[in-house]
Amino acid sequence: MQAETNLVAAAxxxxxxxxxxxxxxxxxxxxxxxxxxxxIKLLEAAAYLEEAAKASFPDDRLAKxxxxxxxxxxxxxHGTIDPQAFNEK
Amino acid sequence: MAVSYQRKxxxxxxxxxxxxxxxxxxRWNIWDDIxxxxxxxxLNNEGDAMRLExxxxxxxxxxxxxxxxxxxxxxxxxxxxxxxxxxYEESKHALVFREYLVRSGLRTTEEYMKFEESVLEQxxxxxxxxxxxxxxxxxxxxxxxxxxxxKQYDRAKLAENTVLMRVMELIARDEAAxxxxxxxxxxxxxxxDRDGATEDIVSVLGSFSMPGSDIMPNYQDxxxxxxxxxxxxxxxxxxxxxxxxxxxxxxxxxxxIQSAKAERA
Lengths: 89, 265
Ligand SMILES: [Fe+2]
Ligand SMILES: [Fe+2]
What we know:
The structure holds two protein chains of two kinds. Chain A is an all-alpha fold. Chain A has one domain: Non-ribosomal Peptide Synthetase Peptidyl Carrier Protein, Chain A (Orthogonal Bundle), CATH 1.10.1200.10. Chain A contains six helices and no strands. Chain A has helices spanning 2-15, 20-25, 32-35, 39-52, 59-63, 68-78. The longest helix of chain A has 14 residues, at 2-15. Chain B is mostly helical. Residues 90, 142, 145, 174-175, 178 of chain B line the site of one fe (ii) ion. Chain B: GO terms for molecular function: metal ion binding; stearoyl-[ACP] desaturase activity. Chain B: Belongs to the fatty acid desaturase type 2 family.
């Protein structure tokens, strides 16, 4: 779980560095919109996440993402975790 | 930036295609094409009044939309003439909503006039800067209005309100046609400068809102009326994903463009 959470946090931070403070404090129950990310930023974060987790998320699942835990769940279901993925950047 | 003859010619042809269909297949008027005699006030409620009034309000900023739309496109015949024709078609939308509100008794003429006055107290200003951004905004916004009116059509059908069904059907069809034209022009922009146009798509979506949403009195309260707008999920599903797909823009493209932009900064 922690690896997925870290990956999600890194992707969100990369898409919206201006929201880093709220991303640092987020929990799985936090809503993405409360972090300050709009729909297009969420898509950008999803792209980083897909790259890092070597995954491809279905559009209809992505449309349903409301909370951080929804993204974590997507990674768990569709991804292959490589914890180094974001550290290399 | 000067627009090439080639591009102007392409825009002219795009407009002619749009206009031919509009003239031959899509023209309607509020007297003959809406079955006003079937109007049954019992089929309406205050929720309908709020929704219709809100849509009417958005359409009421037409003078401001026209002023910006025509000026920004005046050097390109196809796009400027589209703006003129678009304005004519949009002008019927506010008109038919007003007629429906008053004829159905949902609002008295005086109530309507007060509403109109309150809406027009503010002047709408575009958030987009370039013609390309304006066109991109149009592609998303027209699709959104199509879906909103399509939703109202479904509601009216459920309520067996044939008059409102017809109103929504006619308007939704116009909005879909507008979306189609804008999509074609955005495609030209992408062909010319893929990365630049993609960057504009991201920036337009980043600040996207319905026109008038920040100036119409009580807009957010109005939007809370059931089915007045689309949910965030519906916006993703029906507006963002299909539009990006049409343009051949992927999430990966967006991430790549934004990363490059961040590096430049
Ligand atoms: Fe309209
Ligand atoms: Fe329209």
